[in-house]
Amino acid sequence: MAETMFVAGHSRLPAGMAAKNVYETLTITVELDRKYGVILEASCTLATEHGRDYIGRLLRGHSILHGVDDLVEEVKQNYYGKATNAIIAALADLHYQFQQIKHK
């Protein structure tokens, strides 16, 4: 079994966003350590490369083993774009997906 896993979380994008023209949903994907839930790499479907890179750097290094509350706070304190709520919802879904996998 691999030491890492790939997990995706999804949420709806708000109207009026550039990414909404390409995607209906915001997707956050992460590669994380299977044992500790630490995010090694992260990406998302924001429209700009800069936005995608920023969210990736913001999430990297955090563990989702016991929830995403710390990540939600990071997003609230550092990301000031229209996708804030969509990012938070995608993180919640990401954690849910991770828990489903861990309990199999």
Brief rundown of the structure:
It contains 3 helices and 3 strands, in the order E-E-E-H-H-H. Strands 1-2-3 form a 3-stranded antiparallel beta sheet.
Describe the structure.
By secondary structure, the chain is of the alpha+beta class. The protein is built from 3 helices and 3 strands. The chain has helices at residues 49-59, 69-78, 84-102; strands spanning 4-12, 25-33, 39-44. Strands 1-2-3 form a 3-stranded antiparallel beta sheet. β2 (25-33) and β3 (39-44) form a beta hairpin. The longest helix has 19 residues, at 84-102. The mean pLDDT is 91.
The unreliable regions are none
The string of secondary-structure elements, in order, is EEEHHH
The separation of the N and C termini measures 14 Å
The amount of beta strand, in percent, is 15-25%
